[in-house]
Amino acid sequence: MNIVLLGAPGAGKGTQAAKLVEEFDIAHISTGDILRASVKAGTPLGLEAKSFMDKGELVPDSVVIGLVKERLQEKDTEKGFILDGFPRTSTQAVALSSELAALGRDIDAAVAVNVDFEVIVGRLTSRRLCKDCGYIGSKADTSCPQCTGEMYQRDDDNETTVRNRLEVYEQSTAPLIEYYRGCNLLIEVDGDRPVDEVFLDIKRKICK
Ligand code: AMP
Predict the structure, then answer these.
(1) Helix extents (H) in 58-112
(2) Is 64 in the pocket of ligand 1 (CB under 6 A)?
(3) What is the C-alpha to C-alpha distance for residues 38 and 30, in angstroms, rounded to an integer?
(4) What is the pLDDT of residues 110-120, one digit of tens each?
(5) Ligand 1 center–CA 172 separation, angstroms
(6) Distance (Å, rounded) from C-alpha 203 to C-alpha 208?
(7) Greatest CA separation found in the chain?
(8) Residue 208 has what pLDDT?
(9) Is the pLDDT of residue 131 over 90?
(10) CA 110, CA 188: separation in Å to the nearest integer?
């Protein structure tokens, strides 16, 4: 099963990706996670990416496409994968299609998780993550409910940057919904519901 997860930042892609990975035993490819790891490691790529990420802008296509192409060469992706946060531009979508064609693979579904932008602003500005296990929680979690680890706020989850990320999404990424509809791959779900309800809806529509 090869899945592309679409949806604005804060729509719940990361949470749903984690559940889909477990359900279908597939590889999780999150370009945001890969980029944050490079920033943390202080690699040249991380240094280049950081200035874009801090402002809520997209990292240049050439950089992100290169990362994903490399990741798709890894063995664990052969059993299937979920792309979380990629593609985000039509250039990335076209590059993905041609890379997959070259590898003799296909996308089975493009899942768009839809959530109202004002709901997202509230969600992201109160989002907190666990430093140890990556658990996604909220301000109310003073420590991680899963592993008691320390919770932190992402640098780009402040309101100004969140609003910029949503604007960038609207301009560059939202058009991909029509692109995947045209490819007959689009599945849409209402993401403004409890996590398990959204997940069951995605699963039901994917397995149809
Ligand atoms: P995310 O964790 O998916 O919200 O991504 C965090 C940030 O990483 C984004 O705001 C972008 O700056 C950058 N990023 C992640 N994925 C991509 C992508 N496919 N194309 C360009 N920039 C990306």
Answers:
(1) 61-72, 90-103
(2) yes
(3) 13
(4) 999 999 999 99
(5) 12
(6) 9
(7) 47
(8) 79
(9) yes
(10) 8
> Is the CB of residue 111 less than 8 Å from the CB of residue 202?
yes
User: Three-state SS string across 118-152, please?
Assistant: HHHHHHHHCEEEECCCCCEEECCCCECCCCCCEEE
Strand-strand pairing, 27-30 and 109-114: unpaired
How many residues are present in the chain? 208
- Rounded CA separation 151/131 (Å): 6
Distance (Å) from CA 88 to ligand 1 centroid: 8
Amino acid at 14: G
Domains of the chain, earliest start first: 2-26+79-116+169-206 (3.40.50.300)
Looking at ligand 1, which residue's alpha carbon is closest to its atom 12?
A: 53
Residue 94's Cβ-count burial label (10 Å; 0-12, 13-18, 19+) is middle
Is the torsion defined by CA of 56, 22, 25, 1 positive or negative?
negative
Q: How far is the CA of 208 from the centre of ligand 1 (A)?
A: 30
Distance between CA atoms of residues 28 and 123, nearest Å? 23
> What average pLDDT is seen over the chain?
96
Is the C-beta atom of 5 inside 6 A of ligand 1?
Answer: no
Regarding the beta carbon of 71 and ligand 1, being less than 6 Å apart is answered no
| Known catalytic residue at 165 | yes
**Cα gap 23→148, rounded to integer Å:** 25
